[in-house]
């Protein structure tokens, strides 16, 4: 997959966001020094497919507290979600799913889908009464059965658009 460098990003922060190593990004891009990074630069992120080859897209409406799964431009299903509270808002932007962890434990429920923004993801919950509310620390919470269904459909590299 290709990442476009944004102002303020470093190779280290990009590596963290995509859960890969700095050396892997340097090697994939034939770069010898992190000092050669500049905004607008296109970087190959190893290990993730090109999102344009994936028929799925996840659209998240923070205000409606709704996650919509789209395949080839057609809505497949919509799910109720919980989002971040005011002091820890869910970050708007365009991300991809970079990895997943079944049964992460605690408040993360039955599945964790990491987003390409470190510390953020789509996950289940141990508090189903929180769904439909703005109560998380910025992550997207789903009912456990819903996040398991979603994880069974979408591959890593799936675009996630949060608005």
UniProtKB/TrEMBL annotation:
InterPro entries: LD-transpeptidase, LD_TPept_cat_dom, LysM, LysM_dom_sf, Transpep_catalytic_dom
Keywords: Cell shape, Cell wall biogenesis/degradation, Glycosyltransferase, Hydrolase, Peptidoglycan synthesis, Transferase
Keyword DNA damage carried by entry: no
Gene3D superfamilies found in the cross-reference section: L,D-transpeptidase catalytic domain-like (2.40.440.10), LysM domain (3.10.350.10)
One GO location term (cellular component): extracellular region
LysM domain residues: 1-45
Family to which this protein belongs: Belongs to the YkuD family.
Protein name as annotated: L,D-transpeptidase family protein
